[in-house]
Amino acid sequence: MDLRTIILDAIKKEGQIKTADIVGKTGVSRAYVHQFLKAMTDEGMIILIGKANQAHYILATEKEQCLAEKPLKVHRIMINKGISEDKVLREIKDRSAIFAGVTNNVSSIIDYTFTEMLNNAIEHSTSEKIDLEILRSAKNIGFTVTDWGIGIFNNIMQKKRIGTAIEAIQALLKGKETTAPEAHSGEGIFFTSRIADFMSIRSFEKKLVFDNVGHDIYVKDTKSVSGTRVDFVLNVKSKKKLIDLFSQYTDASQQFSKTGVKVKLYYQDVDYVSRSQARRLLIGIEKFKTVEIDFKDVDTIGQAFADEVFRVWQANHKDIKFEIKNANENIMLMINRVLS
Question: Which of 38, 219, 252, 270 has the least C-beta neighbours within 10 A?
Answer without folding.
Answer: 252
